[in-house]
Predict the structure.
Amino acid sequence: MFWYFAILLFSNLHFFSCVHGEKKPLYIGVLLELSESWYQKYTHFFPTMFEYAFERIYDRSDILADYEFKLVIRDTKGEAGLAAKRLTEMLEEDPPKVAVIGPTLSDSLTVTGQIVPFYNVIELSYIAITATTVDRDLFSTLFKVNQVTDAFNPQRIKMMKYFGWTRVGTITYQEEISFSQIENFHGLLRENNMTLVTSAVISDTSNVKDILKRFKEQFGVRIIVAAFRTDIAPRLFCEAYHQGMYGNSHVWILSGPTVYRGWIDKANIEGTGCSKEEIIKATQGYFTNEYLRLRTSAESTVSGQSPEEVMNAMGRLVSNTKYAMSSSAAWVYDTPWALAIGLNNSIKYLERSGLQLHNYNYSSQYLEAVVKGMREVNFQGVSGPVAFDETGSRVGITFIQQNFYEVGIKVASYDEISDNLTWLVDSSSLWAGNEVPQDRFTYKEVIVSPSRIAFGLIISLDCGGCILSFTFLFFNIYYRNNRIIKMSSPMVNNVIIAGCLLMYLETFVIAIDYNRNLDDFTGNSLCMVRIWLLSLAFTTLFGSLFSKTYRVYVVFRDYKFKKKAIKDYHLFGMVGIMLVIDVSILIPWTVFYPLEKAKVSRRLMDESNSNMIYYESYLHCYNEQSAYWISAIYVYKGLLLAFGTFLAWETRHITVPMLNDSKFIGACIYNVVIACIFGVPLAHVLPKEQMTLTFVLESSLLLFCTTITQCIIFIPKVSDAIRKGSTAYILRHDKSMPVLVLGINPELPESNPGEASQLEELKEENNKLRMEAANEAIAIARLRKSLLHVTGNVHFYKSGREYVVCKSAGLMSTKKISLTRKNNENSSV
């Protein structure tokens, strides 16, 4: 009888415990960063949030009615290695854990997520966003209640399809959390037959400029998908501002979770090269991919409460603590619900195998049943619809947000379950002018028309210069027997005028070359023709001018020889030698490294159409080695000008206007040098696309230098030749020399034939006496120069037929010295 009552009592107690509330415990391991971590102010409140969710679960009779949860919490201190140690210690301790929740940080999760499959236990993540965990081979038992960054990729593909974009470039920072999602995006691009134009990895901000320049100029990327942390954003968008990669011209799509709200105000802008206003301008309208962290609908969740009621309740709980509530609190709250519903779903699979959930023992049968139950999870949580795909990733809703400084506007939502992109605003209003950017620019080449005004002006001036040159040539030929013109070497003057005409011909060729622009009917020939004409014209003009001065220098200043006869053909030989030097430079240049036509294009944005880029195209003469040859020409011409300057300086005191052009040469050199100092550098510095400005500057320099040179040289000769009255010339070395004035009146009265014959004899005798007087003056000048070299400050003057020697400080001697000279020492000039 005793045993009967004992058995009856035990049966009643067992029935009572099953019916009236004693539940079987399910042990859950929890890994949190409770100390020595920047996130600990949030994680300390997570156990309270878990318990609050469990209490709501206990109110449901259809979810694990016979079970209760027991949390086994371990501190990882935010270190991945310590998290792995705490996990293995926890799983090897009794009782067995049916699941593991956490850790929070991505680095720790990538380690623990690869360990738990070896213990045949599932792990739930609720904050870590790394996309690395989508690899099911490594993370076979991991389920992510929060959405990881690769959840944005289907949304990005959908957005690209909606706007018809098929070309995209990507930028990622060199860290796992950014790199993994972009790698996954590249795979989706290939699956959808879209083109990845180029991809860049930012290791540090020093290479940002080169990356964006390559995106813009080399590949023409307009759609840029990027993932990087907030501290990279200021430098990146500053460079985007400098290169004009913002606004309607380029579309930036960033990963929202790594670019914090209000980052512009908190960013360190110093050292970026931009002001805050410039960065704000560059970031106007960029897009970010965002998670649905909190359900916007007021409908009840699985707990029977609305999202607002749940968040308010947890807000009251955290207000009584010293901790803070994370922005991911909705994911934290939904995690116990996902685990409870998944375990509840697994019970039917366990019962088929004769197993019970509370007897979990890390066997593969238990794991298989629990994994099947987790895959069937589907409920409305505080963070929105909760479900998992085949990789254990959260399948839910994401948003596209457009950002304007401190304002973020949700413009579209994407439901990954239904693969539906819903626009919350008019999609065409996202850009200025309601014009949707294309994924590539439309390029159009525009042939730039030359300026007819500039062309006409230069041609008119060039023709005027030619007329002036022919006028001087006619005058020089017509008055060639005039004594003044004859003494100025008319044949050499003709060569000078020929050099001027070559200069005007060079200007004409430049004008023709400018006027045809891209209508290149001459091929590459004009390039070297221009070089040849300019070089030969310069040498012909100034070489002839300097050779005349050289003759005066030799006659009046060269003391090495008593007499030298330099004829015109000697001067022509000098000019010929100079031209040979020119030819010796130009021939190898033309044969081996000739200038050829190269196209230069200037890129212009169409302000009325952001999808159109115009290229203004020009032709210019170019060769990689041309700088060396041009330098050789410049050096040679510079030496020629220096030689002419020397001659002009040495003959500056010889005042025989018909013979000496030294003062005029000095004026010519001055004008040419000043014009070249300013003009030549400008001609090389000006960009090639400034076609009209370069043409006007180059042509104006040539016209100015040529015209001013021939006017300075020939106008005084014309003035002297046509002047009426007696013609005289003065031969003077310096102020202390005697002055000899010789003249003849051309207006002699008419005479009879006998007188004319006598007059001719007198003229011949007069010319002979004139030459003797000139030779005496030259001899005196040479003697004075020799004495000055020998005696220093000792001077002498003539008194009758004798000379008085003295020093400049006073009379040193009054001794008279007789000067005798032989008749045969006469020489001609």
